[in-house]
Design a protein that fits this description.
elongated, about 70 residues, alpha+beta
Length: about 70
């Protein structure tokens, strides 16, 4: 965790990661201070979805601190 963040969170995209990685980051984001919510929605071909876990649109519900995915 970076001290300069204090209790703030960095939520970002631009670097696609698998849905399972986003779910993992969400479970520990209070400790780490960051969450990448880029689930690679632009990569919606079957190969990317099956092999790499990409191809989802992802949103963060900041009140509940839950991620929501849409294929």
């Amino acid at each position: 965790r970076h001290d300069w963040l204090a209790s703030r969170m960095v939520v970002h995209g631009h670097t696609p990661v698998a849905r399972t990685e986003i779910e993992k980051q969400c479970r520990v984001m209070a400790r780490t201070g960051y969450l990448d919510i880029d689930a690679g929605c632009v990569y919606n071909s079957l190969d990317y979805r099956l092999e790499r876990g990409l191809g989802h649109l992802c949103a963060l519900d900041m009140t509940e601190r839950e991620v929501v995915f849409q294929e």
